[in-house]
Amino acid sequence: MPIPPLLDSTDERPIELTMGRGQVELLPGIMTPTTGFNGPNLGPTVRVRDGQNIPITYRNTLSEAVAIHGHGLHVPGELDGGPQRAIEPDSSWSFELPIRQQASTSWYHPHTHHKTGPQTFKGLAGMIIIDDENSDALPLPKTYGVDDIPVIIQDRKFDDQGRLDYSIEDVEDGMLGDTITANGIANATHRVPAGLVRLRLLNGANARYFRFHFSDNREFLKIATDGGFLEEPVPIRELVMSPGERNEVVVDFSDGNPAMLVSGPRAQAVNDERRRDEGERNRRRNREPGGLGDMFEVLQFTVDPGLPAIRESLPRQLNSINRPTAQRNWPVRRFDLFMRDNRRRGVLGAFQNNIEMSMGINRQSMDMRVINERVRLGERERWVINSFDGSHPFHVHGCSFLVVSQNERPVAAEDAGWKDTVRVDDSAELIVRFDHKATDEFPYMYHCHILEHEDRGMMGQFTVS
Ligand SMILES: [Cu+2]
Q1: What is the β-pairing status of strands 459-464 and 421-424?
Q2: What is the pTM of this model?
Q3: Percent of the chain with pLDDT over 70
Q4: Distance in Å, CA 233 to ligand 1 centroid
Q5: DSSP string spanning 104-171?
Q6: CA of residue 427 to ligand 1 center, whole Å
Q7: Domain pair 148-303 / 332-464, same fold
Q8: Measured at the alpha carbon of residue 109, what is the angle toward residues 108 and 115, in degrees to the nearest 5?
Q9: How many degrees, rounded to 5, is the angle at CA 192 between CA 189 and CA 195?
Q10: Summary mean pLDDT of the chain
Q11: Whether domain 148-303 has CATH 2.40.50.140
Q12: 85 CA to middle of ligand 1, Å?
């Protein structure tokens, strides 16, 4: 598995990310045309620190406009890289990026109006690592590429000549590929030290959900969600990730045994879920989220005893999270996610006539001329998300939020940290607060992170002032 080159700007040196074309061996022995940042496919890992201001330039040498969004970054709307910030061909966008948030793993990817799906599919995505004093002090694996490993997991589909095939069979499923890639290649293998290994997992797929676990069913520790460390490590044996989510986990390889990271059904879990969902299925039509039923080998780990290994146990406390109890007098906003033109439910209303485009939130498809919500700076709110057709990863720009409940259960310990993307199979309640402004000219977005749903209108705009 390739490790993306590190663009270390922890000394505030300027960052340049140039989008261009190339080709790469995604499948063994076949060169596939792709796009990437500073290289043929994907992009370097950008490393920054809390408190810094970093000069950054995105340059576009492609033949179409691309907007680049810093997913997970707490920056004002004008620096967020939404669809209003499309960078035209042979143009660039330079600005100073203020980092004002705790240690976490974020990423950058296209956010171009109606084109986020195909542009991301062709290879435009990269990781952002934010460090702070807490992450410096914690005794965790932190040697990039050795025991602190970025893993961008995606799925791809190819035509018979090995070119990427962005043909969508079912817009409700989104773009599902049959080949899983890790940092851009299929059949990935990686050598790790005989000790603790930290994986920064990013679900960078357009639409596919993963249920990760190890072939030997080993326990591992979840230490961070999208926006920062959990309060303490949470032992898990499987991890569901929807598109856009990041999780950091620590896996113990000190026994020297190889292990395969796989995704797919675990019999017990699927049975439990069926039993639990039986009642709900009568009430709502709930599809199995984006290919979660498919079984894949993702990444084969082998242990190299020659690599420097960390063996001590993890600290009991990783972070301290101020989790307020939601108050009745906080503003409440509801977001109802719809996927189809369902006359029976009478939600036809404001949807556009084009059936293909009839995905939306609160009966509206994304319209760049419409500001859907106006939020007050620095005030806590309760956001209630409901899905009426299938499962959707709901992403909010400009903040990290806390999940109160998810799918009608109190949030699980492993998701009780800061997040910006939440899997909504059914419903979710969030506590949100925005500490940066977003204007009418450069509003923030909230949207489904199944990119084919986003491109078809399951998205809205909001200002913060
Ligand atoms: Cu969706």
Answers
A1: unpaired
A2: 0.94
A3: 92
A4: 30
A5: EEEEEEE--TTTHHHHHHTT--EEEEEE-HHHHHS-----BTTTEEEEEEEEE-B-TTS-B----S-T
A6: 13
A7: yes
A8: 160
A9: 145
A10: 92
A11: no
A12: 23
361 close to 384: Cβ distance less than 8 angstroms:
no
Fold of the domain spanning 6-133? Immunoglobulin-like (2.60.40)
Residues with C-beta atoms within 5 A of ion ligand 1: 392, 448, 450, 453
Please, which residues bridge with residue 46 across strands?
7, 128
Distance 448 CA to ligand 1 centre (A): 5
Distance 197 CA to ligand 1 centre (A): 33
Question: Could you tell me the distance, in angstroms and rounded to a whole number, from the CA of residue 450 to the centre of ligand 1?
Answer: 5
Give the distance (Å) from ligand 1 centre to CA of residue 345. Answer: 18
- What was the pLDDT predicted at 350? 40
For 21-61, the pLDDT digits (tens) are: 999 999 889 999 999 999 999 999 999 999 999 999 999 99
Fold of the domain built from segment(s) 332-464? Immunoglobulin-like (2.60.40)
Identify the helix (H) or strand (E) that includes residue 251. Answer: strand 246-252
